[in-house]
Amino acid sequence: MCGIAGFVGFGNEDIIYKMISSIQYRGPDFLGISFTENVGLAQARLSIIDLDSRSHQPFFSADKKYALVFNGEIYNYLEIKEKLLKTKNYFFRTQSDTEVLLNAYIEYGHDCLDIINGMFAFAIYNFNEKTLFLARDRMGKKPLYFYHDNQSFVFASEPKSLFFYPSVKKELNLNTLNQYLTFDYVPTPFSIYKNIYKLEPASYLIVKKNKITEKKIYWNVNFNEKNISIPDAINTLDLLLNNAVKKRMMSDVPLGVFLSGGIDSSAIAYYAQKNCSQKINTFSIGFEEKSYDESNYAKKVAGHLGTNHNEQILSSKQSLTLLPEIIDKLDEPFADPSIIPTYYLSKFTREHVTVALGGDGSDELLAGYPTFISEKYAKFFRLFPAIIIKIFTEISQFLPVSDKNISLDFKINQFLKGFESNKNYTHSLWLGSFTPLMKNHLFKKDIGLQIENGNGLDVVDYFLKNIPNENYFNQILYIYYKTYLLDDILYKVDRASMFNSLEVRVPFLDTEVVNFISTLPKTYKIRNGTCKYLLKKVMRNKLPDQIINRPKKGFGIPLSKWIREDLKSDVFNILSSKDDFFSDLYVKKILYDHISKKQNNRKLIWNLYIFKLWYLKNF
User: Fold this and answer.
1) CATH hierarchy code of domain 2-217
2) Taking residues 63-83, what's their average pLDDT?
C-alpha cells in the first residue's frame, strides 16, 4: 500500500518531490522519485510484502525500458510469477508483487489485467514508445486521479498532489458540488475540482504525446444467473470466502481484523482465525451513547472465536477533536460521518499492526442494507398519485423527533425522499441528503443558473447505460457498486486508513467472490425480508446466532445530539456565515427546525457543515 504520483510533460525533480511528499502518510517507509525525459514518477511506500530496498519504487525493468509506480497488493502474484517463469524463464530480482506486476504487463500488455486479483492503481511508462499506461482495480479499492491538457498529463492517488504541478489549478466545479449535496460525496468519474477526474474502476487509459489515445473498461459485473442449489451455493461461498481471507493474510508485517460485531466483520474474523495457528488480533471501538454502541457484540464474537481482542471507547469530545484533523487531510468534501470512528479505529489499530482486514462490500453484493427491504414497500407507494405522497410527506413533519440511531422519524422521512424523481434514483435519494427540490431552495439563484447537470443524479443514468438489459434489482445493485460502495465506503476506508499509514484489505470484494455472488438469484441475497440470506446460511454454526440474526446497525455516530449540544456553537458559526452558494434563509430554517426538534435535519446540516469547513480550508 502506498501513494503514487507522476506526470508526463514539462517539469522537474522538485515538482515530483513536492507532489509525493504531500501524501507521504500513505507510505512513510520510503519516498522514491524519478525524473527523466520530462517524465516524473514517484511513490511513497508502506512496506508490506518483501521489505527489501530492492522493491522500492519507481521500479524499473531490467532493460530500463519500463518504469512502474504501484499502489496496492496483487494477491495472486505467486501464481502469476510461476506462469511467467514457465513462459519465458523470467529472472526476478525481488520477492515482491511489484516486480511480478511489471513483468506481467511486459509479457501480456493490458491483458495482464484479466489475470490480476488484487486492489491496485498503477502507472507504467514505456520509455521506448513514450507511452503512459494507467489502470485501476475492478471495484475501485485504490484511488487514482488525473488531469490533462495539451502539454501535460498528471496523476496521483489524491488530488492534493496534483496541485503542485504548475498547470493544475484549484477551481470548484459547481456541477459536482450539485452532486455532492445529494450523494454526500462526488461520484466517479468526477471530482469536486474542474478538470480533475477519477479513473473509473476496472478501466485503463493510455497516454501518448500528452493525449489520451485509449480509455477502456476491461471488466464488468456479470449478472447472468446460475442454476445452483442453496446447499451448493453455501459450500461454494464458504470456500471462496475462506480463500479470499487466506490470500489477504499474506504479509511480512503484523496483521489484524476490524471487528464491529456485525455479521460481515465477524465472518472475516472467523476465516482469519481459522487460517491462523495463533490468536489473531481483532480491533473495535465502542461509543458512550448506547444506541450507537456495538462493542458488546464485538466482544462476544471475539470470545467465541478466541481472538486477542483490543477495544477503545470513543467519546463525543474525542470525536470532535478528530474532526479538524480529518478535514485538514481530506481534499474533497465527504459527508459520511462514519469516517470519524473509522479514522479513530484505524489510528488505534495502527498502534498494533500495519495491515487490517475489513468486512466492507458484503452489503452491496448481498443486498444487506435496510433500503432493500424498503424497496418492497416502495413498489406499492409508487402507485400513489403525487398528491398523496405530498400529503404523507407533510404529515411526516409532525412525527416526534428522536436522536436514536436510525430512528422511526428519520427512516420515514428518508423513505419519502425517494419518490421525488423516477425509480432509478430512489436508492440514491434514500442514502443521500438533499433532493433536487431541496436544492432548488438551497442554491442562490445565480448559482443555480450556472449548474448544467440538472438534478445532479445524471451519474446514475451514466452507469445504467452499461447494463441496459438487466432487471431492476440488478440495476439497483449495480448503482450501489458504482456509487455508494465506490465513493463512500471504499473512499472512507482508503482515506481513514491511509491517513494513519494502515493498509486495509477487503476479502468480500475478492474477484472470485464478486463474480460468484453477482450470478446468484435474487432470493439467495434477500428472502422473506432477510437480507444477506446466503451469508447468514454460510455462517450458521460458525458464529453465535445472536450475531447472525440481529439487524444491521451501521457505524453511526450521534450527530443529531452533537448538533444540538457539543457542536451547536461551531455549526451555527460556520453555517450562518455568508457564502456565495446557499440561501441564508433556507440554511437557517434547516438549522432552527433541527435545534427546535421540529425535524431531524442531521444529514442536511452535516452535509453543509462539512462542505463549508472543507471550502474554508481550500479556497
Assistant:
1) 3.60.20.10
2) 94
